[in-house]
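Everyone, describe these structure tokens:
***
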Amino acid sequence: MSNADAESVMDDPFWSVVRRRHPDLDIVILPPEPATAAESGLPLRAPEPFAELETSEADDSWARLVGHGMPVPASRWIPGPTRDSVRHTVTLTLDGVSRTAGIGHLREAGDLLTSDGWQVFIPPTGMPRVTADRPGELGAESLLFGYAPETERLFLRLTSTGLTVGTSRARELIGSAS
């Protein structure tokens, strides 16, 4: 045992007692394992620039799918696919859209989203909507584009792929959304 090892054993409250009571034992204290960057194995990223990019992408999707109106935006952080990640969701809504216009936008959306690389599903029943997703680095990015005829509301919700921010930062971001 080197002097540095002996000092680390004698400085430790538990192992120093064991060493005094059992001088015949060799005590080896291993160095701590290196911390991984994140549970997902991906590097940590800053959430603010990511949120700005997602908001911009939602605005671009609205412009491509609808092309008119000033939708009301709302965004928040939701849990990601791992404990140390979050997903950013942006919802754009526009009230006062006629049934004809709303359904027309939905009909065109399937082809537009497919050409942009999205996997599209148009449910045959229920509220008129188009769902789409595409793979990302940490989970899938998803899009919901729909029309609520009873309120004449057209909406688009874009939910990002997971963003690795660290466990404590993820809790903070999700908690701030409440």
